[in-house]
Sequence to fold (220 residues):
Amino acid sequence: MTQPARRPHAATCCAIGALAGSLLAGCARSSSTVSSATPAQPPPGAADVLISVSPSVGGAATLADFQPDLPAVDGLYECTGREAIGQDGLGRQLLGPNAVSFSAVLPSRAETRVTIVVVVDSAGKIIRYAERRGPPIRPATPPGLESRATAAEVAAAAASVRSTTITLDYARGLATVANRGGGRPEQAVSGPIDVVGAMDKFGKPLDRAARVLAQCKGRP
Fold:
């Protein structure tokens, strides 16, 4: 008999929800550079707080110079969700017909250090990858109500701790790595997906994406 899917911990749900929100809101961007303009406010339910960054003063200018503040974490992933990504509230197609997102945490829900969302198209090809290294995002809400936090509350919680994020955006053919939060300057650098995705110092995100899919695709 198939076992019912376990309900994720509220803090894990919040972190994954925010990361998924950044995936969806990020697909609307067309610029290949990190903008210094004030980010647009995300639509309700899309807490785009993990990838929208501004350049830092004196920050790294090249992939060779940039160093992630939080290193990659190795080990088995705990799969935390599978979701069909259809249309947004305005009827716009988000990431292509029949796209599906797979989410996972490492090493576990109880001790989350890395949160990953991988989106694949109807043929199973990766079309977007997002990784957030850092402690779970815990909005200042009453216990048990984390899932009801507003986008602003999630953004404030994300900014309160240092994190390193990696995105592979196949629609734009661009990978972005960023350090942000924790009261320190934000830093970001972009480059080709195949280069960033294979770099040891970034934890080889392409390999990590493949491992998440291999581990989570067969889960409900």
About this structure: Residues 1-8, 23-59 have pLDDT under 50 and may be disordered.
